[in-house]
Each structure stands twice: as structure tokens, then as C-alpha cells.
């Protein structure tokens, strides 16, 4: 089971429960293996069937409901605006036998502090390891949506015929080079290396967004100054993909973000 560590002060703020002894008593009742809790941090193991509790926002939501602090129906509003008509991802038939499923959303008007950015990256990796089976089943890409121009295309390309600058790198690399040189390519390359073509997500201007499930593009990098996010989840199981998207989007909504729809359109 994955182990998570939450800041106790933040847990108190999000749950409204100030009594640490009460937390110590109630947390195990959620089916969580509480290792320790003090005034600084809470360490616990989360069961695999509750990936929504891998982040402090999701865990706090569950604890608030269970403890009767605040009953929440779990319904999040998806807002509408005129740009919705343009927000489409066209899925090319070339990904059908490689990594066929994708789901997506936009979350706007966030205040992303360094702490929140760290928390977001943490939940992303926890979901990759557990729910996503080390990215084989599910992989999550989180991007600065302000640089993404819709519609987007999800397709596969020959690895030596396409180049982009991967996250935290400065130079253009083809997809083969990314698998051989980039740390994420070395770690996760085996997921797609057996195929003749690799998955790629590009915007209407043919700018690369990501190479699922390996790495995002440097140009869509999220920083503490980013306000609007584009989230894309790809994988081999539709239910797992949609569940991962829901967890990430609800977490961002709990941080104060506004959710907007991205339509998925099959080209075939």
C-alpha cells in the first residue's frame, strides 16, 4: 500500500478538526493504516481502492464526510463558456492498438503556490505508481493551458520523424532519443518501445504537448505563476483513465479552480 505524509496544520485547516486526538481516533475508521500523527505531520498507508485519498484534498474531503463535519454530495460544477466549442481532442485511429483512451479537462483561475505545485506533482506520481501501474495503465499530463491552442490531436508518429524539447531539457530531441537519453524515457520507455509508432499529443499549430506516457513538452511546463491548467490522461483502460482525471480535477477544484470541459472526438 502507498504511504502518504500530510502536513497536520493543513489537514486541520482542510477538515476543520483541530483536536489531534480526535484525528488519531477517526482516521483509522476510514480504512487507513495510521502510522503516526503529531503536531507537524501525519503518516499513513492508503488502500489501493481509494486513490482519491492519496492527496490531502481528497483525504480531507473523505474525513469531513465521515466525521460529519461537512456533508458533501461530491458533485462538482463544470462551467460553460464560448471557448468550449473549440476545446476538442481528435483521436487518430493510429493510437487504437497502442494507447487507445484519453480523457481531458481544463481547470482555470488557480492560485498555484510552491506548496500546491509540490502537492500536485506528488498526487500525480502517486496515481502513476498505484492506480496507473507505473504509467502502463494510466498516465497523467498536467500543462499550462495558456500555451495550448485547440483543437488538439492525439496520434502516433514514427519516433525518428518528430522532434520536440522535452520537459526540463533545452534541446530538440526525436522520440527515439528521448527514450534513450531523458531520465523518464529510460525509466518508462519499455511501455511503448515495442511499437513502430509512439503516442503524441499536438495542438492545432503542431506544437507538442506531450509524449504519453513518457514526458511532457518543456513549453507547457507548469510553474507557480501558472493560473490555468490543461489536464490530459491517457491509458489502456477507459474506466481507469476517467477515474484518474476525476481525482485530479476534483483536487484542483478543491484548491479553488473552475472546471471546464474538453470534448473527445474519434477521427475514425
Provide tags for this entry:
single chain, 268 residues, alpha+beta, Phenylalanyl-tRNA Synthetase, Chain B, domain 1, Phenylalanyl-tRNA Synthetase, Chain B, domain 3, 2 domains, 6-stranded mixed sheet, 5-stranded mixed sheet, 16 strands, 27% strand
Secondary-structure element order, N to C: EHHEEHEEEHEEEEHHEEEEHEE
Biggest sheet strand line-up: 13-12-11-8-5-16
Question: What is the number of independent domains?
Answer: 2
Shape: globular
Radius of gyration: 19 Å
Q: What is the multimeric organization of the chains shown?
A: single chain
| Uncertain stretches | none
**Helix coverage percent:** 25-40%
CATH architecture of the largest domain: 3-Layer(bba) Sandwich
In summary, what is this structure?
One of its GO terms (molecular function) is RNA binding. By secondary structure, this protein is an alpha+beta fold.
Write structural notes for this entry.
The chain is of the alpha+beta class and 268 residues long. The chain has 2 domains: 3-67, Phenylalanyl-tRNA Synthetase, Chain B, domain 1, CATH 3.30.56; 78-266, Phenylalanyl-trna Synthetase, Chain B, domain 3 (Phenylalanyl-tRNA Synthetase, Chain B, domain 3, 3-Layer(bba) Sandwich). It has helices at residues 8-15, 20-26, 56-67, 114-129, 175-181, 183-188, 238-254; strands at residues 3-7, 33-37, 41-45, 78-79, 88-91, 101-108, 138-144, 152-157, 163-164, 173-174, 198-202, 208-211, 215-216, 229-235, 258-261, 263-266. Strands 13-12-11-8-5-16 form a 6-stranded mixed sheet, with no helix packed on it. It has a 5-stranded mixed sheet with strand order 4-15-6-14-7. Keywords: Aminoacyl-tRNA synthetase, ATP-binding, Cytoplasm, Ligase, Magnesium, Metal-binding, Nucleotide-binding, Protein biosynthesis. It is found in: Cytoplasm. Residues 98-257 form the B3/B4 tRNA-binding domain. It is an enzyme of class 6 (ligase).
Amino acid at each position: 500500500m502507498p504511504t502518504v505524509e500530510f502536513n497536520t496544520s493543513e489537514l486541520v485547516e482542510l477538515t476543520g478538526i483541530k483536536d489531534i486526538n480526535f484525528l488519531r481516533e477517526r482516521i483509522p475508521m476510514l480504512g487507513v493504516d495510521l502510522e503516526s500523527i503529531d503536531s507537524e505531520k501525519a503518516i499513513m498507508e492508503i488502500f489501493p481502492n481509494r486513490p482519491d485519498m492519496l492527496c490531502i484534498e481528497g483525504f480531507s474531503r473523505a474525513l469531513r464526510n465521515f466525521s460529519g463535519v461537512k456533508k458533501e454530495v461530491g458533485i462538482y460544477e463544470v462551467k460553460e463558456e464560448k471557448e468550449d466549442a473549440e476545446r476538442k481532442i481528435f483521436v487518430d485511429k493510429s493510437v487504437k492498438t497502442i494507447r487507445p483512451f484519453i480523457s481531458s479537462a481544463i481547470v482555470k483561475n488557480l492560485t498555484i503556490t510552491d506548496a500546491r505545485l509540490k502537492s500536485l506533482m506528488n498526487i500525480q506520481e502517486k496515481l502513476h505508481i498505484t492506480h496507473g501501474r507505473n504509467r502502463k495503465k494510466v498516465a497523467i499530463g498536467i500543462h499550462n493551458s495558456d500555451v495550448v491552442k485547440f483543437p488538439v490531436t492525439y496520434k502516433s508518429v514514427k519516433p525518428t520523424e518528430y522532434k520536440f524539447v522535452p520537459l526540463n531539457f533545452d534541446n530538440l530531441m526525436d522520440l527515439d532519443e528521448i527514450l534513450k537519453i531523458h531520465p523518464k524515457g529510460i525509466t518508462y520507455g519499455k511501455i511503448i518501445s515495442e511499437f513502430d509508432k509512439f503516442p503524441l499529443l499536438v495542438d492545432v499549430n503542431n506544437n507538442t504537448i506531450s509524449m504519453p506516457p513518457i514526458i511532457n513538452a518543456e513549453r507547457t511546463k507548469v510553474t507557480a505563476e501558472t493560473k490555468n491548467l490543461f489536464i490530459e490522461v491517457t491509458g489502456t483502460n477507459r474506466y481507469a483513465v476517467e477515474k484518474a482525471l476525476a481525482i485530479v480535477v476534483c483536487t484542483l477544484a478543491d484548491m479553488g479552480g473552475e472546471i471546464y470541459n474538453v470534448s473527445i472526438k474519434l477521427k475514425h
